[in-house]
Design brief:
Blueprint: E1 20-22, E2 27-29, E3 34-42, E4 47-60, E5 66-75, E6 77-80, E7 86-89, E8 94-97, E9 104-119
Antiparallel strand pairs: 1-3, 2-4, 3-4, 4-9, 5-8, 5-9, 6-7, 6-9
């Protein structure tokens, strides 16, 4: 039987150390840059968590195949549902994007979140 790691995982929400730099896969407006780091992976790679930052821009989200929990650490943004409902998010706001969510993000300046993802398929 494989040993289970039962130790608490802690990670810093401060300045990112050696972040992965990327761009939105589905950009809509702006020259958005993402910076992120994965801090945890478990359940055979089916669950993960980390920190993500975004500069200004507008980009589509598509959570096909996973559920995401997020918590805003810095900045502000809006997540817009496919029907046009706008969710203004600020520091301290938690949210969940259910499997298959296809809204979009609007970041005016900067936003930073902690995230947890669970694969569904």
């Amino acid at each position: 039987m494989a040993e289970i790691n039962s130790r608490l995982v802690r990670f810093s929400a401060g300045p990112l150390q050696n972040p992965e730099i990327s761009k939105p896969r589905r950009p809509m407006e702006g020259d958005t840059v993402f910076r992120g780091m994965k801090a945890f992976e478990g359940n055979g790679g089916r669950a993960s968590s980390g920190i993500w930052e975004s500069t200004a821009g507008k980009f589509r989200s598509d959570t096909t195949g996973y559920i995401e929990f997020g918590y805003i650490l810095e900045g502000e943004c809006r997540i817009v549902d496919p029907d046009g409902t706008v969710h203004a998010l600020k520091v301290g706001d938690p949210f969940v994007m259910p499997e298959g969510y296809k809204g979009h993000w609007e970041v005016d300046e900067f936003v930073k979140k902690v995230w947890f993802v669970s694969l569904t398929d």
